[in-house]
Write a structure and sequence with these properties.
The protein has 15 helices and 14 strands. The protein is α+β, with helices and mostly antiparallel strands and 414 residues long. It is a multi-pass membrane protein.
Length: 414
């Protein structure tokens, strides 16, 4: 019995029961569509974040508290770590410790809203050096000035705001000299940045910058930093800077075992590798959860195939009576199962890709303009491979049961 004949017979059998065939593949279809969608959105997020990292510059070294994350669950330790203090910043600024660094900028993140008069807005509030954004991102003031090092030392209540923050809180009015409130603390606006848009992880237009000393003392009430960003003399010096930073901080923290580091220093490439690991792990986890639908779909295929075999008992007996072997019968029903799941896989790939495209459009409009639709080709091969495997695994038992039917008993079946 040729493959062509098996395929033609399988197609006719499935076409006769179109509704049942569709319901059979529905579980497989949903599972594959969900996995394709997860992979596409995960890849889109990865590309977006890697693009943002590229905006930091190849000379950038980032020091963060906690141990270097290897998966999504390790990120919380970094966000909540308190191991980077003033003494660490002072040590890193010493040329004798890190000779190839030209700038060291500590930062803290301030959650919450900003208000002016009766208006409230939720921008990104950063405690750090305002001139860092000038040097790194070409974010120059459109009005007013930047606060300086003396403001930082004196813990002055001054702020520099982005163009979108200005528009939301002040409209056409000049914000210079006005007071805004952050966490019940009053800050005098000394500068307003020109429109700049998204650069690296920062939307400059949606930013409020205050001295980190003020943020730590009067807003957050902490004595540690969330991040320290260093700028090396050149991209070629980055690895040397990381080595010097690691050595300096280990000595300062009394660490002799590298496995017990309470900080980590990474370059732009290191950040990219971390992001790929975290997003890859998260995507794999979500995809494995969604894959349960494939198991459900596979069980559905098995059940429907068993029902189909019962209904076609006389057909099986007749085919055996005219010379069909057990192998012919088994191949027939196994091919039908694989054909069913493969059709579900193809439809699922198309549906998943379409939904991922629509979601990407929404995300580009509402979350990040730089978000782009990505459809990994590997997802297509994965979808087709998985659905074929599901058909083989869950179609094997029904096919074997059909092949073992006694032809005489099958012909007598009513």
């Amino acid at each position: 019995m040729s493959i062509k004949h098996i395929a033609r017979t399988s197609y006719r059998a499935l076409w006769v029961n179109k509704s049942r065939s569709f319901l059979t593949v529905l579980g497989v279809l949903i599972g594959i569509a969900s996995i394709i969608m997860m992979m596409s959105i995960g890849k889109g997020a990865e590309n977006l974040i890697l693009g943002e990292i590229g905006g930091l510059g190849a000379e950038t070294v980032v020091v963060r508290p906690g141990q270097e994350p290897t998966g999504p669950t390790d990120v919380a330790e970094t966000l909540l770590g308190d191991s980077l203090k003033d003494r660490d910043v002072d040590l890193l600024r010493k040329k004798s410790n890190v000779p190839d660094v030209i700038e060291v900028s500590p930062f803290v993140i301030v959650p919450g809203s900003v208000s002016y008069g009766g208006d409230t807005y939720r921008p990104m509030v950063i405690g750090g050096a305002a001139d860092f954004f000038i040097d790194s991102f070409d974010a120059y003031p459109e009005e007013g000035v930047l606060f300086d090092e003396s403001d930082t030392r004196q813990k002055a209540n001054v702020a520099v705001i982005g163009s979108k923050v200005k528009e939301e809180l002040f409209g056409d009015k000049s914000p210079i000299g006005e007071s805004i409130r952050i966490k019940n603390q009053s800050f005098k606006v000394v500068g307003s940045l020109a429109p700049r848009g998204q650069v690296a992880f920062f939307d400059i237009d949606d930013l409020v910058i205050v001295p980190h000393t003020t943020a730590m003392t009067y807003i957050l009430g902490i004595d540690y930093y969330h991040e320290i960003i260093l700028t090396a003399k050149s991209a070629d010096m980055v690895e040397y800077v990381i080595e010097d930073v690691t050595r300096t901080l280990r000595e300062a923290h009394g660490i002799t075992d590298p496995d017990k580091d309470d900080f980590f220093a990474v370059s732009q490439q290191g950040l990219a590798d971390q992001i790929q690991i975290i997003i890859g792990s998260l995507t794999a986890f979500l995809s494995s959860v969604v894959a349960i639908a494939l198991v459900v779909g596979g069980v559905g295929v098995m059940n429907i195939m068993l029902v189909s075999i019962t209904e076609r008992t006389r057909e099986i007996g007749l085919r055996k009576a005219v010379g069909a072997t057990k192998k012919n019968i088994m191949n027939q029903f196994l091919f039908e199962a694989v054909l069913l799941t493969s059709i579900g896989g193809v439809i699922g790939i198309i549906l998943g890709g379409t939904l991922a495209f629509l979601i990407s459009l929404v995300l580009a409009q509402t979350v990040a303009p730089a978000w782009t639709f990505t459809f990994p080709i590997s997802a297509v091969f994965l979808g087709l491979g998985v659905t074929s495997l599901v058909g083989l695994v869950f179609g094997l038992y029904p096919a074997k049961k059909a092949a073992e039917k006694d032809p005489i008993e099958a012909l007598r079946y009513e």
